[in-house]
């Protein structure tokens, strides 16, 4: 039997299309592909195959009608069907799945939500912030687009729109989306390569590696404001605890009273609140024990050490305006307190690995594998020295000007 492929031609098919005949006929193009021509000249593409050996009954899978399904496209489908057969898959079933996918394709939102639900939830502490960014900046413009139809050009327009108001957010969304699409690709959920290789510079966002730490005067102003109850109770407590412990804002916002063990003099940040997904052990400095005891007693009903839950946006926004209220000439953020904490610890002669552990960082290289010590005595000594240093700065407040709310 001849195994020649591509026997048909467009010229031949056009000559048969719509021509009435006395009987139904079939003409092979080779490789299992054929056309069925009805008496009234309707031409339909079929793929003939057997799942078993020659003794099994042949199956005819309908591919589509000519000329809607062109000769070249029909041959592409034939080749795909043959690949499925080689992989042990039923072409008819796979064609049905493909049609369902085409009729209801995976959207940009579907893919991003898959990443959020399957990876971010339960693994990252910033899940709520991630969703907010997608909801506000991506879904209204690209969310309902089929992932296959959304190319680099669409993303550049979307990211450009974000960059005009919030350049840092545009960069974050680019990185988050790249992570999401890679996750979906590895999980065989969906495939998108349109963001591969794009950098923040490509979308016009300057990479700003902040090196900001508070100067001695700025830190003194901040501590005096805390000492003089310049802030509302919630913000007074979170600001002070952030500078004392060098903690991340999320660790404080989510901190429960149960994390603070006054008998053991220990604050243990659980894995669920830690960016590295490992517990963080921070001894409570001796001078802070009365403050923590009071906070636990006052806030035991809410279960949160700060007494209530506030979203990251609210805390970051309030913290981002403190420099103005204190009359500082250069802006600083709450995250800069961590860098100030790290630098201040180093100036006190605290070993780098102790500082890194207090910050909640993983130890580098082989130390992270074999050195599981928490260095609790060393941490306590470091924090006691740091609190003493902060007290000294807060006591020296000559010529400090604290502006009232609304003044600049």
Account of the protein in words:
This protein is of the alpha+beta class and 408 residues long. 48% of the residues lie in helices and 9% in strands. It contains 18 helices and seven strands. A hairpin with a 4-residue loop joins strand 5 and strand 6. The N and C termini lie far apart (92 Å). 26% of the residues are buried. The C terminus is likely disordered.
Top keywords for this entry?
408 residues, alpha+beta, 4-stranded antiparallel sheet, 3-stranded antiparallel sheet, 18 helices, 7 strands, disordered C terminus
* Element order: H for helix, E for strand: HEEEEHHHHHHHHHHEEEHHHHHHH
Please state the average pLDDT score.
87
Low-confidence blocks of residues: 366-371, 397-408
Largest beta-sheet details = 4 strands, antiparallel
Number of helices: 18
Sequence of strands across the biggest β-sheet: 1-2-3-4
How does the overall form come out from the CA principal axes?
elongated
Write down the Rg: 33 Å
**Approximately how much helix is present in the residues?**
40-55%
Terminal residue distance: 92 Å
Strand % is: 5-15%
Query: Which structural class matches the secondary elements?
Result: alpha+beta
Number of E-type strands: 7
Summarize the structure.
This protein is α+β, with helices and mostly antiparallel strands. It has 18 helices and seven strands.
Describe the protein's topology:
Blueprint lengths: L9 H7 L8 E6 L2 E5 L5 E7 L9 E8 L4 H16 L4 H13 L4 H13 L6 H11 L1 H4 L9 H14 L1 H20 L29 H12 L5 H13 L3 H5 L6 E2 L4 E4 L10 E4 L5 H10 L13 H8 L2 H4 L9 H13 L4 H8 L7 H4 L5 H20 L13
Antiparallel strand pairs: 1-2, 2-3, 3-4, 5-6, 6-7
Helix pairs in contact: 2-3, 4-5, 4-8, 7-8, 9-18, 10-15, 15-16
